[in-house]
Amino acid sequence: MEVLNALGRRKTAVARIYVKDGDGKIVINGKDFKEYFPTANLHYVVEQPLMLTKNTGNYDIKVTLKGGGINGQAEAVRLAISRALVKINEEYRPVLKENGLMKRDPRMVERKKPGQPKARKKFQFSKR
User: Fold this and answer.
1) How far apart are alpha carbons 61 and 33 in whole angstroms?
2) pLDDT at 1
3) Which end of the chain, N or C, is surrounded by fewer C-beta atoms within 10 Å?
């Protein structure tokens, strides 16, 4: 199999991944993904599409991550892996789709407005 690439986004995080046949190594920005993401919850998020399609240990994945926080980055990687797996085999789509892994989460931080301390919060009103 040649090298396949896919893109995943979440909030301001962007994950570019390169997938090839291998023994299951996931490298993010030059580090092992278990070293890059500190908690077991984030490890599960990254491995979720591979576990659902029973492909754990079949592919080597190289990830370039930019922007966002660790949670947004982990979810961006999850979307990118899901998209790459569907490119490899179209039969994985229904399994990934029913678990909500094929949809990009569109929620973004609302911008701060002028004359307000935050996006929605207002300064305290004083009648006198």
Assistant:
1) 10
2) 74
3) C
Burial 23-51 (b: 16+ CB within 10 A, else e): eeebbbeeeebeebbeeeebbebbbbbbe
Q: What are phi and psi of 15, to 5 degrees?
A: -120, 120
Amino acid occupying residue 84: A
Q: Which two tokens stand for residue 3?
A: 């090298």
DSSP string, 7-70: EEEETTEEEEEEEEESS--EEETTEEHHHHS-SHHHHHHHHHHHHHTT-TTTEEEEEEEESS-H
**pTM, rounded to two decimals:** 0.90
Q: How far apart are CA 114 and CA 8, in angstroms?
A: 32
Domains, in order of start, for the chain: 4-98 (3.30.230.10)
User: Mean pLDDT for each 10-residue chunk of the chain (128 residues)?
Assistant: 92 95 93 93 94 92 95 95 94 94 94 96 93
User: What single letter denotes the amino acid at residue 98?
Assistant: E
